[in-house]
Amino acid sequence: MKGDEQIRLHTLKPPTGSRKPRKRVGRGTSSGRGSTSGRGSKGQKARSGAKIRVGFEGGQMPLVRRLPKLGGFTPRNRVEYAEVNVSKLDRFDAGETIDPARMAEAGLVKKAEARVKILGNGELKKGLNVKAHAYSHGAREKIETAGGTAEVI
By C-alpha distance, which of 101, 110, 108 is closest to 87? Predict the structure, then answer.
C-alpha cells in the first residue's frame, strides 16, 4: 500500500502468492489430476466410498489385539517403603532409639534415606524407641506392648 492510502477492511488483501487455488481432481488427463486422480492404481483406497477405520490393518490381526492385556496402572505419586518386620528389631538393645539410619547400619534397609514402614510380623520382647515413616496397626501395638514408643517421622 502507498503511504497516502489508509487501511480499511474493504482494501485488505492477502499477500500475492500466499493463497493457492485448490487442486481440482478428476478433470481430464491433461489436468495432471485425471484418470486415477492421485489415488494410485487399484486397491482399497482407490475405490469410491473408501473408508478405513482407525486401527484397521487390512485383515491382519490389529496391534491393539496382538498386545497382551495390562492390568491396572501405576500411580505417579506412589510412595515406596522399605519394609521391616517387628521381629527384625529384636536384635537391638532395650531402650535404644532406632531410626532409618540405624536400620541401614544394621543392614535392615539398603539406604539410610529410604522411607521405612514397620510391619507386625513376629514378636518383640524389648522396649525400643522406633522412628519410622509408617507403621502397620499390629506393629504399633507390639512395639507399645513391649514397652517402647512408635514415632512417625
Answer: 108
* The pTM of the whole model exceeds 0.70: no
How far, in Å, CA of 122 to CA of 94, rounded? 17
CA atoms within 13 A on the CB side of 47: 6
Residues 104/114, Cβ–Cβ less than 8 Å: yes
What are the φ and ψ backbone dihedral angles of 20, each rounded to 5 degrees? -105, 150
Contacts of 152 (CB under 8 A, 6+ apart): 131, 132, 133, 134, 135
Q: What does each C-alpha distance from 43 to 36, 47, 49, 56, 58 come to in angstroms?
A: 12, 7, 12, 15, 11
Q: Show me where the domains of the chain are located.
A: 82-152
- CATH 3.40.1280.10 correct for 82-152: no
Residue 145 neighbours by CB distance under 10 Å: 11
Q: Going residue by residue through the chain (153 aa), what tens digit of pLDDT does each one get?
A: 555 678 899 989 999 999 999 888 888 888 888 888 888 889 888 888 888 899 899 899 999 898 888 778 888 898 899 999 999 998 888 888 999 999 999 999 998 888 999 999 999 888 889 999 999 999 999 999 998 899 998
